[in-house]
C-alpha cells in the first residue's frame, strides 16, 4: 500500500497548489542552461516555503498560511482543443505506463513482514523469492517483523503513478484549482534594453490569455498577477548596471512587483573532492504535465512504430493497447529503443539533457539562498496579497449580487420555472453533464472564490463557498459543477483545523458516482477516489477505502484498475481483523490486470504475494492457477528456471485437476525443464517427481536371511519386511545389555551401543552406523506419485560418496582425491568405481496414479571407509496419451501453447516441431535424500529455538570383515501343553570367512528352554531310549512308596543368570556348523506366548570397530491347558522327636491334581508317574496313601488327591558350607523312577525357581506391615518376633509333579511328558502350579501427607501354632465300680515347642470344650489334682505333665477338654512388652472307653 512520508493533510494540500507560469527571454534561458536547468526547474526545489505567511479574509480576520507551496511551470501554449478533460492524452497515458514500468522494488531493500494469525506475508524487492512457492526458506529472509495493529507496505510504483497522474490533470472549465494565478516574466540583465523585453513578455502573456487562439493554458482571473524578475549572471554581468535597471523597474512596477535575482556566482569548476548539493535530481523525473502533452503527442508515431516492431506477440496478450499506449517489454531490445526515441523527441523540443551530478554546477550555496529568498519574496509580497485582493473583490461582488439579482432570479425560477434549469439560447454551449456557465456567472464566481480560499488554506470559508455553490449547481442540474463542488467541500471539511465537522464521505461518493456515471469523466473520478481513499485510510476506514477503490476499476484502463486493486488488497490486510483471503484474491485480480497492461513484472509480483496466503491451505485449484500463471509470466520474461520451479509446484502438490490436465502439465513441465537443462549444462538436475518421503527411508545392513531348508527353520532375525516396534526394540536392547555384561564379567562398557542393522525414523540415528565389507547395504526409499497419471522411471539407482579411511565425507572437494562420487561419473569411470562400491540399478520402476511404492536399492562396499548415500538418480518419462490439436493444428498443450504464443515465430517453431513428433520426453535427474533429525530439547537454547539433531542413517562406516552366523532350528514345536517337555535341536552355522566364538543366548522367557548342564549330564537309560523320553529314567520296584534322595549343587546347573552360555567346544571356523539339543518346556499359563531369543557371538580378534554381533529369533508358542496342581502343608500333631525310627513329627503335604485339559490336542487322561521335591531344608519322605495300581490316572475333569509326608533334611545336609545344596527326593508312583536332579528336569526346576523368586521379590519389595494402633510390642521387637515366627512356619519346599500323556496322532501313539512346579513357602499356605494372573491395579487416592509407619502385629493364626499338645493314655480302661465308685485314670500331657523361640505356656484343665459334637462324651468326667499349670518352654523343647482323670460311671469319654494358651516370652533386655497369650490349636477328640469290670 502507498506509504507517504508526509501526512495525509500534507498530501492533500500538495495535490492542490497555486499554479504560477513562467515566461523567459532567450538570454535568460541561456543563463539558466549553464546549470542544465530551465528557470522553472531552477525554482522547483525551493517552491516550499519554510516560514509562515499571513493574509486577511473578507471579515478582516488574520489567517496563517503554513507549509505553503507553489507550482512553477513553463508556459507552453497549445492550440489543439482537449476533449473537455474527460480522458488523458495518449502521451500522458504512455508516460504513466512508463513510470510504473520503470519503478520496480529496489534491490537489497529491507523486507516488510506482516503477521496475521498463522500467516507471515512478505512485501519487498525479493517478493519473487520470498513469496514464491518454490522458495522454501522465504521466511528466513524476513528482516523486520511487524507487531503493530495497522501496517502499510510501501508500493513506490503506485506513489509515482499517483504523483504523475495528479500533475497530469488536464485543466477544466468547472474548476480553477489548476489555473494559473500569476506569471513570472524573466529577463536577463545582459539584455540591451531589459525594459523592452519585459514589455514584450507582458504582451506575449496577454496574447496567450486573452486572444482566444489557445485553449491552454487556462488562467484563474483576467487580471493575472505579473511579476518581473531581472536575472543577473554574477560571473559575467555588470552588477552596477543590474542594480540600475532594478531601480528603474521599481519605479515602473513598484517595489513589490519586481525582483533582482543573482545566480551563477561560481566562476571556476568544482574540484573533484568538493561536494556540490544537487536538490534538483529528485524533481527532474517529474515532467511538466502541461508542457509534456505536446511533446509526448509528437513522439507517439515514432514510439508506436518502434514498439510495434519489437514487441511481437506480447501485444496480443496485452489487450487495450490503444488505451495504455505502447507497452515495451523491459527485458527486450525494444525497451531501450523506445526510451531513446522518447528522449530524442524531448531533447529536440528543448528539454535539457538530464545528467546526474551536473545540475547547478555554476551555483553556490549563496545562490541557493538567493533563489529561496526570491521565492519567499514573490509569495509573501506578490502572490498572497494578490490572492487576498481577489478574494475581497469576489466577496464584494457576490454580496452585491445576492441582494437583488440572485433573489429575483430565484423567485422567478420558483414561480415560473418549477425548479427546472433555465432555457439557454442556441448559441450557448451545452454538455452531456448539464449546462455550461459563462465566465461571469455568479455560480462560477462563488466557485472561484472557494478555490482561492482553499489554495491559501482558508478551509472554513472555502467549505462555506463550496457548499453554497453545490446547492446552486444541483438546483441548475449542472452535474459536473456540482460534483466538483462536492469533492472540494469534502476535502475542505477534512482539512479544517480542529475537526469542526466530520469528514463527509458521502460527498465524495456522490462526486465519484457523478463523475463516472453521469459525466463519463474517469479522470476526475480517479482523482477524487485517490484523495478520498487516502483520507479514509488515515481514519482507519480500510473497508470503505477498499470498496471505493474497487468501484473505480473498469475496462477502459487496465493499468489504473491494476493499481487500485492492489491498493484495495493492501487495505484488506490492514484492517483490524486482517482479511487475508480477500487480500490474496484482489492481488490475483491486480496481477491479471497488470498482465493485460503489459506490466509483466508487477503481475508476477502480485501472483507471488498472493501465493503466500493460498500456499498450504488446501486451496489446490487456486495454487495450480497461480503457479501456472507464475510459470507463464516467468517464461515470458525470459526466466525459464523460475518457470520450471513454478510448474514443479503444480505437479508436486496434491492437485485436484483431472488426469488429462495433469498429463498436459507434466508434458509441459518436462519440455520446459529439458530446455533449462540444455541451457545450464547441469548433468543431473533435481526432479520434482515422484515425491520422496525421505523421513520414511529405511536402511538394512547385511545379507538377507536364508529361508527354511527342509525341516530346518531359520532364525527370523531382522528384515525390511518387519514393522518397527519401539517396545520390541527396547526389549532387544535390554537383552543385548545382559549379553554384553555377561561377556565383560558383569559390567557394560561405557561405549556400548546396541546393534542396529535396521534403521528408520524411530531409531537412534545420531551416530554413524557400522557396516561390514562385502555385506550389502539395502536402502528402502518410499516413492509417491501425486498425480492421476502413471509415471515411468528407469535406471533407478543410488547416489553416494565414498571416502577411504582417514577422509571424511563432509570435506567436499577439500577432502582430497580419496573422495569419490558416483553422481558425476562417466560410463568409463563407473567400472572403476564399482571396485569401491557396487551399485544395483533397477531398470524399470512404474508408479500407478496416486500410488505409494517402495524401492529397495542395494550397495555392496568392497573397501573400508566412510560411505554417504546422498540421493537417487533416475530417468523420468511422461506416460503417452492422445493429444487433441488446437486451432493452429498443433498438439494441444495447456499453458505451454499460451507461453509459446508470446514468442516470435522463429523461437516458436523449434518447440512446436518437437511437439508434432509426439515422442516421449525423457529427463534424467536426481533427488536428494535429506533426512532431518529429531527435535532437540535438552538445553535451554534448544527449548527456546527450533533445533534439530543429526540423522546419519545414510552415512555408514565400512568396517573390516566380521564373522556372520546363521541359526537354524529343527523339530521346534509351535504348540505345547502347559509344562510339557519337548526336545528340539539348534544348529549354528558360520557363513563368513572369519571364525567366531563366545556364543551366548538370552531370552525373554529363560524358563522356556535349556541346553542342559554339563555336570548333570543325561546318559540315556533303557527306558528313556525305548520311549524316546527326554528324562533320565531308572527302573524301580513297583509298590515302593519310599523316596529316593539325591544331593545336588545349584552351581551344577549354571549361574543364577538369564544369560546362557551355549556349550560349543572351541570356536566355529569359517564354513563350520554345530548342532546342539535344546529342551523346551511349555509355559505354565495357557495362551499364545511370544518367545524371543537373542544369540550373541564375537570375533576372536579384539579391538575391532564392531565388538560383537547378534542374531534375533522370535517364535510364537500356543500353550494349552494340561493339569492344575494345588498343594498345601499341614503340621503333624505328633511330637517331632519320639524316636529315631518312628514316623512322628514332620509335615503333611497334600497335593490336588485336576485335569483341566479340554482334549484339544487329543489328550484324554494324564498319568502322574512321579512326585519329586527339591529344597535346602525339607524333602518328601514317602506317600501316605499310595495307589495300588501302577500310577495315578486323571481323566478329563477329574481330580486326584495325594498325601505325602515331608521331613526336614538331615543336619549334615543343611550346613552353612553347603547352603546352595539342594536335596532332590523322588517318590515314584509307577514302575520307573525319573531322576529329577538330572537334565532337563533339574534345569527347568532351577530356572522356574529363579523366575518365581524374582516374581515374589517384585511383588513384595518391602517387609510385611500390619495396621497401626497396636500397643503391645515395640516395632523392632515385633519385627524380630514376626521374623522368628515366619522362620518357624517357612517350608521352602518345591514340588515337582511329573506326568505323562498318550496321544494318538496319524495312527501313531505319541507319549507326551512334562512337569509342573509348585512352590510351598510356608505351612498352612496353599500354592498352585498355574501362573498368577495379573490383575489391574486399583486407583489409589493421592495422599499429600504420609501416614506414620504402623507397628507390626503378629497374626493370630501363626500364634495359635506355637505349642503342639498330645494326650497319652490307655484307650480302654477297666474298673470295678462295685468295689470303688470312683475311677482315676493316669494321663500324660505332652507339650512341644515347635519354634525357635522361648514360649510361655499356660495349661488350664478346667477349660470346657466348645464343640457341641463331643459335649455328651465329656459329661461325668473331671480332672483331679492340680488343674492349672504355668511353665516356659525353650526352643524345640518337649515337656510331659502327669494328669489324673476321675470317672464316676462307665462309658465313652472325650478327655481332650484342657485348654493350652501360649505366648512368646519377652526378651530379657526389656525392650518388648508382654505379648497376650493366644489359645493354641487343639487336636482332634481324645476318646477313652471306661469299662465296668465288676459286671
Walkthrough of the structure:
The structure is a single chain. This protein has 36 helices and 58 strands. The strands form 13 sheets. Strands 14, 26, 28, 30, 32, 34, 39, 41, 43, 45 and 46 form an eleven-stranded antiparallel sheet that branches. The chain is elongated. Helix content is 31%, strand content 25%. About 14% of the residues have low confidence. Helix 10 packs antiparallel against helix 13 (333-348). By secondary structure, it is of the alpha+beta class.
Summarize the structure.
The chain is α+β, with helices and mostly antiparallel strands and 1495 residues long. The protein contains 36 helices and 58 strands. α18 packs antiparallel against α19.
Amino acid at each position: 500500500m502507498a506509504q507517504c512520508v508526509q501526512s495525509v493533510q500534507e498530501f492533500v494540500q500538495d495535490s492542490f497548489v497555486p499554479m504560477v507560469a513562467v515566461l523567459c527571454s532567450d538570454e535568460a534561458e541561456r543563463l539558466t542552461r549553464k546549470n542544465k536547468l530551465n528557470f522553472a526547474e531552477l525554482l522547483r526545489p525551493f517552491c516550499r516555503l519554510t516560514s509562515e505567511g499571513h493574509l486577511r479574509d473578507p471579515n478582516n480576520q488574520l489567517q496563517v498560511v503554513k507549509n505553503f507551496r507553489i507550482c512553477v511551470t513553463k508556459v507552453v501554449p497549445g492550440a489543439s482543443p482537449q476533449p473537455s478533460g474527460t480522458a488523458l492524452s495518449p502521451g500522458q497515458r504512455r508516460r504513466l505506463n512508463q513510470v510504473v514500468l520503470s519503478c520496480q522494488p529496489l534491490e537489497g531493500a529491507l523486507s516488510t513482514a506482516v503477521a496475521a494469525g498463522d500467516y507471515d506475508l512478505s512485501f519487498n524487492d525479493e517478493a519473487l523469492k520470498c513469496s514464491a512457492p518454490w522458495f522454501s526458506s522465504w521466511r528466513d529472509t524476513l528482516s523486520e517483523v511487524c507487531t503493530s495493529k495497522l501496517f502499510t507496505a510501501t508500493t513506490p510504483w503506485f506513489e509515482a503513478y499517483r504523483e504523475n497522474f495528479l500533475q497530469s490533470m488536464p485543466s477544466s472549465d468547472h474548476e480553477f484549482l489548476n489555473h494559473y494565478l500569476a506569471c513570472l516574466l524573466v529577463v536577463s540583465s545582459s539584455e540591451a534594453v531589459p525594459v523592452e523585453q519585459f514589455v514584450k513578455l507582458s504582451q506575449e502573456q496577454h496574447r496567450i490569455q486573452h486572444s482566444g487562439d489557445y485553449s491552454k493554458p487556462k488562467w484563474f482571473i483576467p487580471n493575472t498577477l505579473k511579476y518581473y524578475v531581472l536575472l543577473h549572471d554574477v560571473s559575467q554581468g555588470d552588477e552596477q548596471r543590474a542594480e540600475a535597471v532594478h531601480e528603474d523597474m521599481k519605479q515602473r512596477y513598484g517595489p513589490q512587483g519586481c525582483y533582482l535575482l543573482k545566480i551563477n556566482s561560481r566562476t571556476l569548476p568544482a574540484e573533484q573532492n568538493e561536494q556540490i548539493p544537487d536538490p534538483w535530481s529528485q524533481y527532474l523525473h517529474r515532467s511538466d504535465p502541461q508542457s509534456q502533452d505536446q511533446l509526448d503527442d509528437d513522439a507517439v508515431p515514432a514510439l508506436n512504430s518502434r514498439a510495434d516492431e519489437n514487441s511481437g506477440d506480447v501485444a496480443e496478450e496485452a489487450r487495450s493497447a490503444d488505451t495504455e499506449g505502447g507497452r515495451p517489454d523491459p527485458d527486450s531490445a525494444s525497451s531501450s529503443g523506445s526510451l531513446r526515441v522518447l528522449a530524442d523527441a524531448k531533447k529536440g523540443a528543448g528539454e535539457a539533457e538530464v545528467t546526474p551530478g551536473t545540475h547547478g554546477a555554476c551555483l553556490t550555496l549563496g545562490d541557493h539562498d538567493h533563489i529561496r529568498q526570491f521565492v519567499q519574496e514573490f509569495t509573501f509580497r506578490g502572490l498572497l496579497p494578490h490572492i487576498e485582493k481577489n478574494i475581497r473583490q469576489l466577496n464584494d461582488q457576490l454580496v452585491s449580487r445576492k441582494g437583488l439579482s440572485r433573489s429575483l432570479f430565484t423567485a422567478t425560477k420558483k414561480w415560473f420555472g418549477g425548479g427546472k434549469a433555465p432555457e439557454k439560447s442556441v448559441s450557448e454551449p451545452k454538455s452531456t453533464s448539464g449546462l455550461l456557465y459563462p465566465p461571469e456567472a455568479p455560480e462560477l464566481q462563488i466557485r472561484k472564490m472557494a478555490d482561492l480560499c482553499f489554495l491559501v488554506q482558508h478551509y472554513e470559508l472555502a467549505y462555506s463557498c463550496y457548499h453554497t455553490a453545490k446547492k446552486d449547481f444541483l438546483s441548475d442540474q449542472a452535474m459536473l459543477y456540482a460534483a466538483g463542488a462536492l469533492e472540494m467541500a469534502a476535502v475542505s471539511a477534512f482539512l479544517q483545523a480542529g475537526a469542526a465537522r466530520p469528514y463527509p464521505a458521502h460527498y465524495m461518493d456522490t462526486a465519484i458516482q457523478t463523475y463516472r456515471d453521469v459525466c463519463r469523466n474517469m479522470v476526475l473520478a480517479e482523482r477524487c477516489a485517490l484523495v478520498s481513499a487516502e483520507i479514509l485510510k488515515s481514519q482507519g476506514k480500510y473497508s470503505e477505502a477498499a470498496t471505493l477503490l474497487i468501484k473505480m476499476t473498469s475496462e477502459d484502463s487496465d493499468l489504473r484498475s491494476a493499481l487500485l486493486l492492489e491498493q484495495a488488497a493492501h487495505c484488506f490486510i490492514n484492517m483490524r481483523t486482517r482479511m487475508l483471503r480477500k487480500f490474496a484474491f484482489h492481488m490475483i485480480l491486480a496481477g491479471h490486470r497488470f498482465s493485460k497492461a503489459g506490466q509483466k513484472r508487477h503481475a508476477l509480483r502480485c501472483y507471488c504475494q498472493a501465493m503466500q496466503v493460498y500456499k498450504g491451505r488446501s486451496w489446490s485449484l487456486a495454487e495450480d492457477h497461480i503457479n501456472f500463471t507464475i510459470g507463464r509470466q516467468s517464461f515470458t520474461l525470459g526466466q525459464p528456471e523460475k518457470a520450471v520451479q513454478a510448474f514443479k509446484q503444480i505437479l508436486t502438490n496434491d492437485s485436484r485437476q483431472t488426469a488429462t490436465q495433469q498429463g498436459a502439465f507434466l508434458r509441459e513441465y518436462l519440455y520446459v525443464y529439458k530446455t533449462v537443462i540444455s541451457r545450464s549444462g547441469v548433468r543431473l538436475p533435481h526432479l520434482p517427481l515422484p515425491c520422496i518421503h525421505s523421513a520414511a527411508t529405511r536402511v538394512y545392513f547385511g545379507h538377507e536371511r536364508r529361508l527354511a531348508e527342509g525341516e530346518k527353520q531359520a532364525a527370523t532375525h531382522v528384515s525390511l519386511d518387519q514393522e518397527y516396534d519401539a517396545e520390541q526394540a527396547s526389549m532387544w536392547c535390554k537383552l543385548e545389555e545382559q549379553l554384553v555384561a555377561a561377556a565383560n564379567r558383569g559390567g557394560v562398557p561405557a561405549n556400548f551401543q546396541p546393534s542396529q542393522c535396521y534403521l528408520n525414523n524411530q531409531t537412534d540415528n545420531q551416530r554413524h552406523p557400522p557396516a561390514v565389507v562385502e555385506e550389502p547395504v539395502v536402502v528402502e526409499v518410499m516413492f509417491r506419485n501425486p498425480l492421476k497419471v502413471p509415471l515411468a522411471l528407469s535406471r533407478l539407482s543410488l547416489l553416494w560418496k565414498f571416502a577411504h579411511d582417514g577422509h571424511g565425507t563432509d570435506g567436499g572437494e577439500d577432502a582430497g582425491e580419496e573422495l569419490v562420487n558416483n553422481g558425476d561419473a562417466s560410463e568409463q569411470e563407473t567400472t572403476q568405481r564399482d571396485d569401491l562400491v557396487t551399485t544395483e540399478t533397477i531398470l524399470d520402476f512404474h508408479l500407478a496414479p496416486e500410488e505409494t511404492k517402495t524401492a529397495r536399492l542395494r550397495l555392496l562396499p568392497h573397501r573400508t571407509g566412510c560411505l554417504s548415500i546422498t540421493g537417487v538418480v533416475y530417468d523420468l518419462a511422461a506416460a503417452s496419451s492422445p493429444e487433441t490439436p488446437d486451432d493452429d493444428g498443433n498438439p494441444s498443450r495447456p499453458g505451454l501453447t499460451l507461453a509459446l504464443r508470446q514468442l516470435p515465430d522463429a523461437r516458436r517453431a523449434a518447440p512446436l516441431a518437437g511437439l508434432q513428433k509426439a515422442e516421449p520426453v525423457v529427463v534424467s535427474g536426481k533427488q536428494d535424500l535429506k533426512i532431518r533429525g529429531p527435535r532437540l530439547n535438552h538445553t535451554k537454547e534448544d527449548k527456546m529455538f527450533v533445533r534439530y539433531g543429526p540423522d546419519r542413517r545414510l552415512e555408514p562406516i565400512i568396517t573390516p570383515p566380521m564373522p556372520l552366523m546363521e541359526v537354524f532350528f529343527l523339530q521346534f514345536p509351535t504348540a505345547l501343553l502347559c509344562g510339557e517337555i519337548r526336545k528340539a535341536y539348534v544348529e549354528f552355522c558360520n557363513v563368513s570367512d572369519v571364525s567366531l566364538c563366545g556364543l551366548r543366548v538370552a531370552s525373554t522367557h529363560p524358563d522356556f528352554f535349556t541346553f542342559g548342564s554339563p555336570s548333570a549330564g543325561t546318559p540315556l537309560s533303557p527306558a528313556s531310549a525305548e520311549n524316546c523320553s527326554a528324562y533320565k529314567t531308572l527302573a524301580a520296584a513297583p509298590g515302593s512308596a519310599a523316596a529316593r534322595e539325591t544331593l545336588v549343587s545349584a552351581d551344577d546347573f549354571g549361574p543364577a543368570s538369564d544369560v546362557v552360555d551355549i556349550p560349543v567346544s572351541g570356536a566355529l571356523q569359517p564354513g563350520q556348523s554345530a548342532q546342539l539339543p535344546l529342551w523346551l518346556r511349555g509355559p505354565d499359563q495357557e495362551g499364545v506366548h511370544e518367545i524371543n531369543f537373542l544369540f550373541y557371538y564375537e570375533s576372536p580378534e579384539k579391538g575391532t570397530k564392531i565388538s560383537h554381533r547378534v542374531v534375533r529369533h522370535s517364535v510364537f508358542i500356543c500353550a494349552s491347558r494340561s493339569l492344575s496342581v494345588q498343594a498345601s502343608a499341614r503340621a503333624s500333631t505328633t511330637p517331632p522327636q519320639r524316636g529315631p525310627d518312628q514316623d512322628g513329627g514332620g509335615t503333611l503335604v497334600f497335593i490336588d491334581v485336576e485335569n483341566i485339559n479340554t482334549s484339544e490336542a487329543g489328550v484324554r487322561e494324564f498319568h502322574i508317574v512321579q512326585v519329586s521335591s527339591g529344597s535346602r531344608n525339607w524333602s518328601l519322605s514317602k506317600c501316605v496313601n499310595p495307589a495300588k495300581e501302577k500310577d495315578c490316572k486323571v481323566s478329563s475333569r477329574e481330580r486326584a488327591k495325594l498325601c505325602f509326608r515331608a521331613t526336614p533334611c538331615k543336619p549334615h545336609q543343611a550346613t552353612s558350607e553347603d547352603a546352595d545344596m539342594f536335596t532332590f527326593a523322588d517318590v515314584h508312583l509307577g514302575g520307573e523312577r525319573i531322576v529329577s536332579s538330572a537334565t532337563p528336569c533339574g534345569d527347568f526346576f532351577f530356572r522356574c525357581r529363579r523366575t518365581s523368586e524374582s516374581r515374589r521379590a517384585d511383588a513384595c519389595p518391602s517387609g510385611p506391615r500390619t495396621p497401626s494402633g497396636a500397643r503391645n510390642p515395640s516395632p523392632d521387637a515385633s519385627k524380630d518376633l514376626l521374623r522368628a515366627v515366619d522362620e518357624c512356619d517357612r517350608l521352602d519346599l518345591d514340588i515337582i509333579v511329573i506326568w505323562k500323556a498318550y496321544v494318538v496322532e496319524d495312527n501313531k501313539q505319541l507319549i507326551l511328558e512334562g512337569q509342573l512346579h509348585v512352590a510351598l513357602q510356608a505351612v498352612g499356605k496353599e500354592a498352585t502350579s498355574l501362573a498368577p494372573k495379573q490383575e489391574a491395579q486399583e486407583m489409589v487416592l493421592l495422599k499429600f501427607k504420609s501416614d506414620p509407619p504402623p507397628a507390626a502385629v503378629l497374626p493370630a493364626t501363626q500364634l495359635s501354632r506355637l505349642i503342639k499338645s498330645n494326650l497319652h493314655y490307655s484307650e480302654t480302661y477297666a474298673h470295678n465300680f462295685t468295689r470303688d465308685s470312683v475311677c482315676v485314670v493316669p494321663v500324660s500331657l505332652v507339650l512341644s515347642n515347635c519354634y525357635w523361640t522361648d514360649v510361655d505356656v499356660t495349661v488350664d484343665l478346667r477349660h470346657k470344650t466348645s464343640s457341641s459334637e463331643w459335649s455328651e462324651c465329656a459329661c461325668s468326667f473331671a480332672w483331679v489334682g492340680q488343674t492349672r499349670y504355668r511353665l516356659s518352654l525353650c526352643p524345640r523343647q518337649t515337656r510331659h505333665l502327669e494328669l489324673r482323670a476321675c470317672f464316676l460311671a462307665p462309658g465313652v469319654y472325650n478327655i481332650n477338654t484342657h485348654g493350652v494358651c501360649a505366648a512368646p516370652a519377652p526378651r530379657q533386655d526389656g525392650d518388648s512388652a508382654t505379648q497376650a497369650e493366644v489359645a493354641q490349636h487343639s487336636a482332634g477328640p481324645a476318646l477313652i472307653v471306661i469299662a465296668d469290670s465288676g459286671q
